[in-house]
Amino acid sequence: MDKKEGAIGHGALSRLLIRLSKTYDVFAPIEEEGLDQSIVRFEAVGKDNVKRLNLRTKPSFSAKKLFLPQRQPMLSMRAGNGGFSHKFAEPLKKPQLVFGIRACDLIGTQRLDRVFLEEPEDPYYRRVRENTAIVGIICHESDDYCFCDSVITDEIAEFDAGKGCDALLRASGSGFFVKLITDRGVALFRGAMLKASAMPLTRREPCRRMINPTRMEEIFDSAAWDEDAKLCLGCGKCTLICPSCGCYTVEDESLLRALGERVRHWDSCQLASFTRVAGGHSFRDKREGMLKHRAYHKFVYFKKRFGKTMCVGCGRCTKICPTGIDMVKVINMGL
Q1: Contact, 129 vs 117, CB < 8 A?
Q2: pLDDT tens for each residue of 272-299
């Protein structure tokens, strides 16, 4: 009978990921050297980089690209013989494994689920979701930007119990405690020689930052929006790095004279072109309106529709903003 809980060392875990890469496209947090600091992001795992696996640090970028690719072919088109034909694209060539995803990123993906798996369902997103195995890891501390305790406390507790995961990890001194949740999780770790060990019930360090979105209706007309808007460059980094932003645009691209491709690309409500239509009219052309729309979509509009805030409190938008716009300070204005 397969063990449901156990422990695995760092070396055995690396060997397991290499073995799984024969069956899955395995993605995990890999540390890379940047210009002035190291960057941790989800990358394909192989023999050349498995030693740079970093499950201690929250990734600089979310895992969104693995569920909603930044560029996703939808169909190919061909003209010829007086006619026109098309073929729908297959999103995944083989199943993928997202290894080491944290609560904020998985819950952000579940926010995307509410949009892409509601009627009318997105078949491309559905195929990726169904063919993705998930191994989560429990956070043991927050960073200087996290405020997840303010918005997803109950869902973090559910994640820590294994909801949404096939298997769950918690770091220990010599490796990781492992809890196997589903049959797929059991299959992933089969043959990994798990030692007999139970996952400890230790509490995560609480976030050092808190956000209070309860006054959003009151601050809609505040002059403070203008001050923050003056800082905004309209670069869209905040939405592109966000685990729950799923806006996209669709374009037809010409490959050769008789060949073409329909492609979905990420888009952003913070870009000037986002609401521009034929004739050049833009329905939201003021920087203040764009900034306000993003905040209210995150904390008001999405919640009215689905009962939860769209924001998951990872704080990456604040960290990456080149002019230092702080989501917590924006929402907490006047407190």
Answers
A1: yes
A2: 888 888 888 888 888 899 999 999 999 9
